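Form 7-S
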Amino acid sequence: MSNPSVEGSRALLTRLREALGDDSCLDDSSITRAYFSSDSSIYRVVPTVVAQPRSRDELIRVVRAALKVGMPITGRGAGTSLCGNSIGTGLVIDMGRHLNRVLEIAPEARTALIEPGVVHSVLQAAAQPHGLRFGPDPATADRCAVGGMIGNNACGARALGYGRTSDNVISLEIITGTGEIITLGEGGDINQPPIPQLIKLTEEHRAAIRAEFGKFTRQISGYALEHLLPERFAPEKFFVGSEGTLGLVLRAKVKLVTEAPVKRMIALGYERMDLAGDDIANITRFRPTAAEGLDDRTIDVVRRLKGANAVPPLPKGQAYIFVELAGDDAAEVAARGEALMTAAHAVDAWRVDDPKTVATLWKIRSDAAGLAGIGLERPAYSSWEDAAVLPECLGDYLRDFEKLLVKHRLHGLPYGHFGEGCIHCRIDFPFDRSGGAADYRAFMLEAGDLVVKYGGSMSGEHGDGRARSELLSKMYSPESIDLFARIKRLFDPGNLLNPGILVDPLPTDRDIRVTQTVHAPLRAIDPAFVQQVHQCTGVSKCLADTTGSGGMMCPSYLATGNQLHSTRGRARMLQEMINGQIVHGWRAPELRAALDLCLACKGCRRDCPANIDMAAYKSRVLHESYKGRIRPLSHYTLGWLPRWGRLITRIPGAGALINSALKASGLRSATLWLAGVDARRPMPLFHTEGSARAALRETKDCPLSDAELAARPQAVIWVDSFTDIFAGTALPALVKVLLQAGFNPKILQENACCGLTWITTVSARDIW
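Output:
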């Protein structure tokens, strides 16, 4: 029997293509729809089609065509949303692929003109030569899109010093749900619809707006109606944080600020996290640019995953606040730091001077989201992610929050922007159990009541999205909730822009990704594998260009720029295979396409905060795909390469003979074809004097006697298969360097193989 919703989506897509004309920017392939069905939240919603517009004009055409045919529209940058506001059932517009340029830096005016998909760190790199920066800096700064920051009113660790995104926006060019293009802020016309109607509407509700909105800086939930009051009218600031429900950003003009030349970190230790929260009002008297809190629960995860040396020495205590002080005068900053350490009610206080240690501590804090997801006995998730209370209430809130976790038999790893009362927390919701979604919902509703008790905000920087929009009625009066809906109708009368977010909200427990796999056959057969794959919650560090910082995740994504070839992209395909709705089984072509370019380098295993090991997952997929079947020819050629190579180097003269034969173009091409290797690649040459180990063992050019060597510390060299069988390796040079460094190099004589070709082809053995 046909599925009416599927047929309706297909009919709508056909009408969209007809309305658009040139539909080359649209992609409704199963692999693309599967990838864009999730962001960094707990939710999964499969879109009908994904658009990747290549210009502002094409973006406008796509939006207007979708509005014309009545297709819901969701804008998306890097998909780093933690509350599910960058996924949707209709058209998802990917701004990050092409609309990602810094159009202009104006140093004298201290402004930047950008496209919505520009990555935060790219903007920073463009501004840095002028001594400028964009103020807000979320932990995902090296991959998140500034357009997404505008959508959510992102803040980051240094919002204390530089403000929220809304504080740093000058003007926005947007397209509304009527297809009109308007400019908000500088250069905008307040007489252009729907601005006059918006002004009239807010005039009727000034009392409620003054009473309920703009009470503290981290009140991000709902629409920022305080910016529509006549004494502070700023429609561009009002639009920030509207989560794509009122319009999509075409271009943005943002403010740039100067970076303070002098910085100092103060590390404060406390007995408990709530006691650290009690001290925040005292700390903020010293004008920090950042005051970030976490405790030993997060620190211990780092030690467990990366060793004790991965964590620098810390002050006494079990909870910590890392404070950054900044200014123009080194003596003044130093004096402020000393005064802070004296005044703080901490059990210990340190000044951290070593830049490497400072960078390591900030990295631990920025990686906290991923670390918290795997730091508990069971997987932990975002959703109750960034609630905020008045800073002076933070300690009391943390105490009550811990009691709430205990009441619901849950565990969490809190951390966050203590200086502004904003707390992140990953919680081990039982999504993989029957009834887990209902348990989650019960907690969310009660957690919302707790925040309201302290006059707080459901969201402190990530927006409400699918996770918390339903809770807004706890925080705001019926008058304000109705006002949200009326404002939404002014900008989006057809309710096509991110429907179900903020206005007429979806239930918080709808469309949870892991819950959709509770009855998946693979979960019953191998629950451990399912849990491992779902450790990828979309933290998306794999989307960052980390090559300059020594990171290596993920080489294939860095080469292609296609998120499908990132670690997250591959994890999403595995999750979709487990779900079974779009990607079907181990042999699914979508899964093969996603994993094909994975080098099995284990860069993700080292760099991913969520501890994803894609090399292991790829080997499992290949094993299951070819179990009991004849494998591709390349699995027997390249997969058995260590064996073939050792055979060749054992036969006298075989290496030289094969090297000569492979110089013939026809044989060379045939060999590359058999191996499944691109014909443009050069052929490696086999070692002609047996193995590299054997050849080196015969050399007599060591200037030291046996006795002199024996007196030195030994350094054992593991010669892998490729170094052993191919010519031109660095083995002789390595031995020479070790000798010059005072070691006695000893070459391991047993065959030593890293197993890479076996693992990545599963060509001769079952590895699971």
